Automatic annotation (TrEMBL):
Pfam family name, one: HATPase_c
InterPro entries from the UniProt entry: HATPase_C_sf (IPR036890), HATPase_dom (IPR003594), Sensor_HK_TwoCompSys (IPR050482), Sig_transdc_His_kin_sub3_dim/P (IPR011712)
Organism the protein comes from: Streptomyces achromogenes
Residue ranges crossing the lipid bilayer per the database entry: 7-26, 32-51, 390-410, 422-441, 448-468, 474-495, 507-527, 539-562
Name of the protein in question: histidine kinase
GO function term, MF aspect, one: kinase activity
CDD domains given in the database record: HATPase_UhpB-NarQ-NarX-like
Highest taxon of source: Bacteria
Length: 782
């Protein structure tokens, strides 16, 4: 199908040009044998060049220019040469604006040089140059408008693909987040109890007063743990957004709590910390100080948070331990640095941890400072209906040049003296045509204002006829500016508020244009060289209205169709994005409910027992119960990891690959559907991970559309391209499934063709896998 699209138009153009070569078809006759051979060669070069306009547009343009020069010199009167126009449009669609501008300059330069050589430096050359410039500028502008629209669609497709990926990974990410929360809440409190109780048990013979302090601390900390876990349960049931209140005070309270455990901790915290980055700072400080408490008991610690250039720079450093850590092994969940690294990465930051030269440990994190950012736009989408950089100026320039070229062409046959006699008037007419087209520059931003300005400037012609006055044979050229009214009417329909609010546009355009042309024709009291009265003006206005009404109505309808198509596309993007995010929220909510259902049995029971033992004064039972609570916490983390295949710090749910297609087809066959899979091992070997996931998701979506009949999946890899053909999926070639497939294929930078027979053809690039991600150095805390 793609091959047919590439070659159909060039072959049709070649066939049309070949018809002119048939004897007796062209009025001036066919060229001679040598010229005929040159024309045939030019046709072959142009056809071949246009066949590559989608993959190599600049080279295609160069080939069509060469073919146009050859054919134009071989047969100046009969060779059409539309190839440069089509190739320039393809360049504008597929290349950035600077490349398009250079290509436009090259095409216009070649055309002007060719016109100067064939026609000579005569007055007709001016009209030819203006006409070619206007045509090529219009062609480039239309191509740029198409490029902007496709860029917006690609951006929407990529964003939707990101939402789909977020939906698929929502459960895994929520499990990781909940694992961090559970680890932070329980490990921070319970580790302190274990360390304090063990120290009191070791020193109870020498310092018996420590036992009472340890029991009081265990009771207080156990109560705080219960409160924190109950708060976590409440957060699991709360589906609201994140808390953006300042967290500087909470971080200071956290640091002060560690100071109460007997270790010197200094801190410098700026005011006004808020948002996700501040939450990450709080979690990293808590984890770093907890690790220091485990592995460096009694050592001094320092917490430093600074703001610099829109970033938060966090440093948590502890001195070497005063005494060897006893009983610390096995207290943690084995993910200290990994958890801090994940927390920093979740807000777009980086974290590094390692030993200091003095023998201590330092944690450094760089996080984006939300408070220092400029307010961002609330909407994610560009306004694809109005945003253009090159298309509108190009269209305005074309609307200026084409009427001016018409004026120059119509005055070519005038005698030199007659032309010089009315030269000021001709220049005035050209100036009025330019002013008439100038408002089109803002047609997307303010279509109604542009529409009114265009209709108002149309009446400048009759005023000029009366004020200058302009001769009738010169004033008639102002009618060429009617093209601008059609463009303004189209802009109202395409970029206005909809049919219900823009329906007066064709009526107003018809009456305004008919009235302006009638006033222009009757301004000097003459119509077609004869005296005209009021009745003649009314009749002329009526006839013009009858002629113009269908034109403006058709233009207005075309604008409405374009607007409806684009608005529906954008609306679908919004709906699909919202649907994916809703499903992601539901998946995360399911994980929260699963944790809330098991949290009490896993940790709360042991924590309540710890508080009871502390109140009864049983210090040994306090230490044992605290260790049991930590063991239950680790078991809880393993339960979260059981939702996938990895540990808390690793990938919890590995993405499917192309190799899993065999299992997918077996599952469908066991469900009663006949599905055949061909070419899997050879095609999937060595594919990048992202392509592996794309292949699986595409085939899964196609086979899951709901077709009951047999299906066949064929994979073939050739020349760096993976081709996927799925047959027997009529329900997947249209509707929501087809839209989702297009999004997935666009995210993988591929192409998809949906055939009416129920066949899907997908092409994906099968490049080399990406470079591995560099990990931070291992930590003795992990």
């Amino acid at each position: 199908m793609e091959t047919i699209r590439n070659w159909l138009l060039p072959l049709l153009l070649a066939a049309g040009q070949g018809v002119l070569l048939w004897p007796g078809v062209y009025p001036d006759g066919t060229p001679g044998p040598l010229a005929l051979a040159a024309v045939g060669c030019a046709l072959a070069v142009e056809t071949a060049a246009l066949g590559w306009r989608r993959t190599a547009p600049v080279r295609s343009l160069a080939g069509t220019l060469a073919a146009g020069v050859l054919g134009g010199f071989a047969w100046p009167d009969g060779y059409v040469g539309l190839g440069p126009l089509i190739a320039l449009y393809s360049v504008a669609v597929r290349c950035p604006v600077p490349v398009t501008v250079r290509a436009l300059a090259a095409v216009v330069g070649v055309d002007w040089v060719g016109a100067a050589v064939t026609e000579g430096l005569r007055p007709p050359l001016l009209s030819t140059m203006a006409l070619s410039l206007g045509t090529y500028v219009l062609c480039a502008g239309l191509g740029e408008a198409r490029r902007q629209w496709l860029a917006g669609r690609l951006t929407a497709a990529r964003r939707l693909a990101g939402a789909e990926r977020a939906r698929l990974l929502a459960g895994d990410q929520e499990r990781r987040r909940l694992a961090r929360e559970l680890h932070d809440v329980s490990a921070h409190h319970l580790t302190s109890v274990v360390v304090t109780a063990d120290a009191a048990l070791r020193l109870r013979d020498d310092r018996p007063e420590l036992s009472a302090e340890a029991l009081a601390f265990a009771e207080r900390t156990g109560t705080e743990t219960l409160t924190a876990l109950q708060r976590l349960v409440g957060l699991l049931r709360d589906t609201g957004g994140p808390d953006h209140r300042p967290m500087s005070g909470r971080i200071e309270e956290l640091v002060a709590g560690f100071g109460r455990l007997g270790r010197p901790v200094t801190a410098r915290i700026p005011d006004g910390l808020a948002g996700p980055a501040a939450e990450a700072v709080h979690g990293i400080v808590r984890e770093a100080l907890t690790n220091a408490l485990r592995y460096a008991p009694g050592a001094a610690a320092r917490v430093d948070v600074r703001r610099a250039d829109g970033l938060l720079e966090l440093t948590v450093e502890n001195a070497p331990p005063r005494v060897p850590a006893q009983g610390a092994g096995g207290l943690g969940a084995g993910r200290g640095v990994a958890g801090m690294r994940e927390r920093a990465a979740s807000v777009g930051g980086e974290l590094a941890a390692g030993p200091t030269p003095e023998g201590g440990w330092r944690v450094r994190a760089t996080l984006p400072d939300a408070a220092a950012r400029r307010p961002e736009e609330t909407g994610w989408r560009r306004d694809v209906l109005r945003e253009q950089r090159f298309a509108d100026p190009a269209l305005m320039l074309a609307a200026m040049l084409l009427p001016v070229a018409c004026v120059a062409a119509l005055t070519e046959d005038w005698a030199g003296a007659a032309r010089r006699a009315v030269l000021p008037e001709l220049l005035l007419v050209c100036g009025l045509l330019v002013v008439h087209a100038l408002p089109l520059l803002w047609r997307r931003r303010a279509p109604w204002a542009v529409f009114g300005a265009v209709l108002a400037t149309a009446w400048a012609g009759p005023v000029a006829v009366l004020a200058v006055p302009l001769p009738s044979h010169v004033a008639q050229f102002l009618v060429a500016g009617t093209l601008v009214e059609t463009l303004a009417g189209y802009a109202v329909a395409a970029y206005g508020p909809g049919a219900g609010h823009t329906w007066p546009a064709p009526v107003v355009a018809t009456l305004g244009t008919a009235g302006a042309v009638t006033a222009l024709a009757c301004a000097d009291g003459m119509v077609a060289g004869e005296r005209a009265g009021p009745a003649d003006a009314v009749l002329l206005s009526f006839l013009l209205s009858v002629v113009l009404a269908p034109v403006f109505t058709a233009v207005w309808g075309a604008g409405l169709l374009v607007r409806r198509r684009r608005v529906r596309a954008v609306a679908y993007d919004d709906f699909a994005f919202a649907s994916s995010m809703w499903q992601a929220d539901r998946a995360a909510e399911a994980e929260r409910q699963r944790l809330a259902a098991t949290l009490r049995e896993a940790v709360l029971t042991h924590t309540r027992a710890l508080v009871g033992a502390a109140r009864r004064g049983e210090l040994a039972e306090v230490a044992d119960t605290a260790r049991a609570a930590l063991a239950a916490m680790r078991e809880m983390l393993r339960g979260l990891a059981d939702g996938g295949d990895g540990g808390p710090g690793g990938p919890l749910a590995p993405s499917p690959s192309a190799a899993d297609l065999d299992a997918l087809c077996r599952a469908l066959r066991s469900a009663g559907r006949e599905v055949r899979l061909r070419g899997l091992p050879e095609a999937a070997r060595g594919l990048p991970p992202s392509t592996q996931v794309s292949v699986y998701r595409i085939v899964e979506a196609a086979l899951g559309a709901g077709d009951p009949g047999p299906a066949r999946v064929t994979l073939r890899r050739r020349r760096g391209t993976l081709r996927i053909t799925v047959t027997g999926v009529r329900l997947a070639i249209a509707g929501p499934v087809a839209e989702r497939l297009r999004v997935q294929v666009a995210a993988g930078e591929g192409r998809i063709v949906c055939e009416p027979a129920g066949r899907l053809r997908v092409s994906l690039p099968a490049g080399a896998p990406g470079a591995p991600v560099q990990e931070v150095s291992p930590s003795p805390y992990a």
